[in-house]
Amino acid sequence: MKPAPFDYEAPRTLEDALALLGEDVKVLAGGQSLVPVMNFRLAQPAKLVDVNRIDDLAYLRRVNGRLRIGATTRHATLERSGLVARGWPLLQQAVRHVGHPQIRSRGTVGGSCAHADPTAELPVALTALDAVFHLRSRSGRRSVPAAEFFVTHLTTVLRPDELLVEIEVPPMPEGARTAFVEHARTHGDWAIAGAAVVVAPRHAAIALLGAGPTPVRARRAEAALVEGVPASEAAALAAELVEDEWRAALTRTLVRRALEEAGV
Amino acid sequence: MRITVTVNGAEHTADVEPRTLLSDFLRHDLGLTGTHVGCEHGVCGACTVQVDGEPVRSCLMFAVQTDGRAVRTIEDLAPSDDELHPLQEAFHAEHALQCGFCTAGFLMTLEPFVRDRPDASEQEIREAVAGNLCRCTGYEGIVKAVRRVSA
């Protein structure tokens, strides 16, 4: 239950961090998923690049109405942010379900997204909010929308030489209401199913947790909601995306609850 | 690697391997065995300490990461050798421990919680300790102790 030996680097600047990335190197952000698998020796990276000492990677800013989240922003910071509460309450509703207080003290928004656990809450909320992921490498930069960033279980489009540096969230539509609901065996445990919803006049976004190896948008349910169907009908459409019978039933209930919480 | 870390108000300089967990550094290098090690993969919460005032699992941090930071362990909770912290008093009064293995983790998790959230509901108290496992008490006494100290 102790990690295998590794080389450790804690660069102070983004440029230094990017220069250290490559094959068999893992980025250490909050470490709340990486360190357990290292303790089990399921992961034995040759080198860890600790990005926690890069100060200008942890921030929450509103720029031209859009929220910019620095990759090493802690879950606890997001949870306590007035800026997030006022403009993007869905992120706060979601982050309260992430692990436990001790996990949220260390865990980072960028780390959670780059790790891409299919049961993680923030990727689902960010998918409902149409977030954009900004990546950097020594050779350049690119921006990837949430719909393309998550590839499958524990896999994103990030290449070994790339670092997720910022997540950008567009403003919510006028009059939007949001909700995040999930089912887990106990609070903070891995969720079995869940839903993040954003509802406004002529706008609906429903992202599902547990419907596949990545967050899934329930597009048909969204279109039906915009046309004015009741929550129960939209929830039934969303649940059609889930294969297992019991998980589909659970999803249907959770989506209905989320929509009702958001005022549908 | 050489690190300098403040633990319970005292500065320590030590050479550690990068892979040394903070929990092992505290126990083996500094002899602070009040921090208990349960699961070593971030499930049981027994090893919870505070880093820069925030509760963290010391088995999920490397000691090198605390270079330049302030760590607080259970040894620093009671104000003196013959006085208990109010939260410890409450745990004692409400039978919130039996074997005691998990207790340090609960206390280090709850100390900032009772300070920041004196008005917490029972549900919020239960969520606050959801990351700490106790196999003796059934949590009833622990929740009562938190309510007692918050009242």
Write structural notes for this entry.
The complex is a heterodimer of chains A (264) and B (151). The mean pLDDT of chain A is 97. The termini of chain A are far apart. In chain A, helix 5 (89-95) packs antiparallel against helix 8 (121-128) and helix 11 (231-239) packs antiparallel against helix 12. The longest helix of chain A has 17 residues, at 245-261. In chain A, the strands form 4 sheets. A 5-stranded antiparallel β-sheet of chain A has the order 4-5-10-6-7. A 4-stranded antiparallel β-sheet of chain A has the order 11-12-13-14, sandwiched between helices. Chain A has a 3-stranded parallel β-sheet with strand order 1-3-2, with no helix packed on it. Chain A is α+β, with helices and mostly antiparallel strands. In chain A, a hairpin with a 2-residue loop joins strand 12 and strand 13. Chain A has helices spanning 14-20, 34-39, 75-80, 82-87, 89-95, 101-106, 109-115, 121-128, 146-149, 219-226, 231-239, 245-261; strands at residues 7-9, 25-28, 47-50, 60-63, 66-70, 132-137, 140-145, 150-152, 155-156, 163-169, 177-184, 191-200, 203-209, 216-217. Chain A is globular, with a radius of gyration of 18 Å. Chain B has 151 residues and is of the alpha+beta class. Chain B has 2 domains: 2-76, Beta-grasp domain (Ubiquitin-like (UB roll)), CATH 3.10.20.30; 86-150, [2Fe-2S]-binding domain (DNA polymerase, domain 1). In chain B, 32% of the residues lie in helices and 15% in strands. Chain B contains 5 helices and 5 strands. Chain B has helices spanning 22-29, 86-93, 103-116, 122-128, 140-150; strands at 2-7, 10-15, 48-51, 54-57, 70-72. Chain B has a 5-stranded mixed β-sheet with strand order 2-1-5-3-4, covered by helices on one side. In chain B, a hairpin with a 2-residue loop joins strand 1 and strand 2. The longest helix of chain B is centred in the C-terminal third of the chain and has 14 residues, at 103-116. The mean pLDDT of chain B is 96. Classes of the chains: A alpha+beta (264), B alpha+beta (151). The interface between A and B is medium-sized, with 30 and 30 residues.
